Amino acid sequence: MYLTNRQLVEKNNPLKWGLLFAVALLLSACGSQQHSDLDAYIEDVKQKTKGRIDPLPEVKTYESEVYDAAELRDPFTPYAEEPSEELSVPGPVPDQNRKREALEAFPLDSLAFVGHLERDGTLWGLVQAPDDSIYRVSAGNHLGKNYGEILNISESKILLKEIIPNGTGGWVEREASLALTE
Question: 62-182 maps to which CATH number?
């Protein structure tokens, strides 16, 4: 049986009432009770006090500087003149011609005094390098990058003398030590 448009529009058509009931049922299921927790969260966020955002900092404009070579110092020349080789500098001078020892390749703070040996009254120190190698040293040996020479070895530390540059072309001696690490 085929229904015409006129038959669908009539007041007492059961198909029309059934269709209306199904649409009403669907619309009632989409009510606001499903989203009550979301609505509560939105209200909570709206109730919070709104913070104030600081304005962006003002950007300073760049002002260029013109370099006039006639009035200013040449930027490629050093401030102080280097001392000439003829001028003798008082104070200690490291022996640049001496063959460097293995422990002079490492900074002093990277070396560790890990033990000592005594034989025939001579005390030897055991120094560990950063590469985990152990070296046997005695008084007179050199270690560290600052021309450090071992003066004395005791059971608890190695005392040495370093020669460091003083910043004006000369050299200064200072004492340093390596303490025994436990």
Answer: 2.30.30.830
